[in-house]
Amino acid sequence: MLQSNSIKWLLLSASAMALSACSESDTAVSKPQQAKAAQVETQQPAVKVTSAAGASPSVAQPAPETGAAEPTNPSVAVEKASDTSEEAAALNSAQPAPSEDAAATEARLRRVIAQQVGNVPIDRISPSRLPGIYEVVAARQVIYISDDGRFLFPGPLLEVSQGQLVSLTEATLREIDMEKAPQRAELISQVAEENMVIFKAPKEQYVLTVFTDVNCVYCRKLHENMQGYLDRGITVRYLAFPRDGIGSAAYNKLVSVWCAKDRQLAMDNAKLHNKFSATTCDNPVADQYSLTRQMGLNGTPAIILANGELISGFMEPERLITYLNSKANTQVSENR
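^ thats the sequence. predicted structure below, dont judge the formating
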């Protein structure tokens, strides 16, 4: 069986965000490190990837270079040799039987995953577009397994279609995510606008709700582009998401914004100038943080569309308006 750290790596690799976002685990990283990471990201060449489900385009970064292979440890080699018979038996049991039906295949692969990874809740197993490879949806993430059970790996699984790379993994993730969209839309509808920090577009076409953390480099990047969103008819309504939790420094900073007489100015000062006033009052920050727990959000900025769809991360104004217009046009076509 794979070690627990291998299991964690597999699921974390599968859950890597396609867009630029600050995860809750990022809060342990210092601000200089975050800034350096953002600078490196902008310098990396990128490959455009499109979701098979028509989801927002993502950016795939080049894989890091690896060093020379590590020398073989004799003791590890001996241990591996002693496990050969057990591994062979496991592989034999994983082999597909002749004329195996879909239900039998799924049951067999579930047993293989349980043997190798442990008791991970599996939502479904289905054939992928790649022959001989099955898609496994587990813990709201996507991983892949070969038909014979020998290979288990995270995505993304990319398909070349009409000269473009199409992310089949992202399409499945969007499908999974959209199952929670109605719940998110309902929860947000219960939040009064007076408890938000709103930047309203003069010629409003779309209204987005954005969960934000003042310590997140990508939240600051989004705010730096605020005029671009407003000029394109996109209203931004901020809700608070202190990733470090209630009572943290990030929480106190957000409280100071929500308690300011001019919330827009306070947000500008916080995001653009890193300036805060030690102000407290009866505020909704804790309640809004509770919403992120109910929605299962784990990163910022978390952009929620009117229908509850989630965009996890920063998206430039032009790219975002193109996506929103595309969705609107598709909706019009479907309603005809």
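The first strand starts at residue 22 and ends at 23.
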